[in-house]
Amino acid sequence: MRTTQAGTSSASGDVAYARTPALPLDLFSGTIFKSLRRTDQRKWAHAYLKGLLVTPGKKSVRRLATAISRDPSVAQSLRQFVSLSPWDFDEVMEELTHWVAGRRPGPVWSIGRAVLPKRGDRSVGVHRYFDRSSGRTLNCQLGLGSFWCVGDAQFPVDWCLHLSTTWTQDPARRREARIPDGEQYRPMWADALRLVDRLAARSDSPSSVVLVDMSDEPDVGYLLRGLARRHRDFVVAVPPYLAVLAAGEGASAPVSAKSLLSGQSPDSAVVLSLGKERRPARFQTSLVRLTGGPPGRAPGPLYRLYTEADPTGAPGPLWLTSLAHHTLAEVSSITALHAGTAEAIGSMRRDFGLLDFEGRSFPGWYHHMALVSAAYTYQRLHGSAAAPPPDTAQRVP
User: Fold this and answer.
1) Which residues 6+ apart lie within 8 Å of 359 measured at CB?
2) 114, 123, 263, 337, 379 from 117: Cα distances, Å
């Protein structure tokens, strides 16, 4: 039996993440929000960003305003800046992407889900969704985010709000939420491809590997083939019923991914390094091809299907990767980054107001996500902004 070592270092650099030197918040804010056309917009961007960083607990607009100023008009100004002021989410996130790229991120683009529970049915994009992490069906907004890994930290560089057909096919709801005409329903796999295309357009990283969990996506094959057409390597969690063809002679009938791996003996051992934790792991793995290729054509690309063998027998995620000729140590180190994406989203929910957008509009949702992403990035890279003393918090600078 072969034993190798895997850890996040092979996917994201040889050194652990560390904060860069302290940076004044106004310098960071002035760079990230420099695309905003008007001086007052940039002022309120800085104020909202500071409020997210210094306000404890829930980040409602009123609490943000109270934390940074005693002026009662500030709350309304912040609310209008996020929900009504015209500024471009894409331009801000492009600037944030460049900021993170300057910290030499690793070669993995991780896509994670942000489940944002909401009351009622007025918040843009809200729908019934089964949340696997809680095992419950929730009334929520669902956002997909792109994350770039820098050492052992991950930074959000783009977002996509998933819109169900109950929103895209209802003219009245579209008008009320100010959903642009070009925004139509896309299945989850298409949302993921859209994020990949947008990040590819704004970064110089042709060899980055896409990491995403699509284990509940029935049409995941469209994502896999879309990534292959883009010549983009990937590590994707797939549904257990995904039909595959075992590589090798005499293997012609499609089988489900789960049944194929269940017949494999765990014959490869890897030492997983997850932060400071190190533990041995054994994997079931097989080389496969996807079904559905044109008849008479040459066989499709070779992929590696694998899952970590649980000693208790509990089923684990099934992963498919285009890195078929890489070692299990290398691909499992990329897989391990998925937990870091979930942790980053959890931190944004707990500490940076990801759940706390009070508006209902499509532009407002994106504006809030840009501001939360900027606050999270600043805090992780440069430390917290100092709260103004009570006797000086009279006005917004």
Assistant:
1) 79, 82, 83, 365, 368
2) 10, 10, 40, 25, 25
Mean pLDDT of 168-180: 96
Distance of alpha carbon 309 from the chain centroid? 26
5 Cβ neighbours under 8 A, 6+ residues apart: 270, 271, 273, 329
Helices marked H in the chain: 9-12, 25-32, 39-54, 61-68, 74-83, 89-101, 165-168, 171-177, 188-202, 220-229, 257-262, 328-335, 337-351, 362-382
Residue 191: domain span: 2-382
Q: What is the 3-state secondary structure (H, E, C) of 82-117?
A: HHCCCCCHHHHHHHHHHHHHCCCCCCEEEEEEEEEE
Q: With respect to residue 393, please indicate whether it lies within any of the assigned structural domains.
A: no
Question: What is the number of alpha carbons within 13 Å of residue 42 lying toward its C-beta?
Answer: 15
| Number of domains, the chain | 1
Is residue 225 included in any domain, yes or no? Answer: yes
Q: What is the Cα–Cα distance from 47 to 51, expressed in whole angstroms?
A: 6
Residue 312 lies in a domain: yes
Strands 209-213 and 303-308: unpaired
- Name residues whose C-beta falls within 8 Å of residue 115's C-beta, 6 or more positions apart in sequence: 129, 131, 133, 138, 140, 141, 142
CB contact at 8 A, 80 and 48: no
163 contact partners, CB below 8 Å, separation of at least 6: 124, 125, 179, 183, 184, 185, 186
Average pLDDT of the chain to the nearest whole number: 87
Q: Decide if 388 is inside a domain.
A: no
- Quick: pLDDT tens for 250-272: 667 899 999 999 878 776 667 66
16 pLDDT above the threshold of 60: no
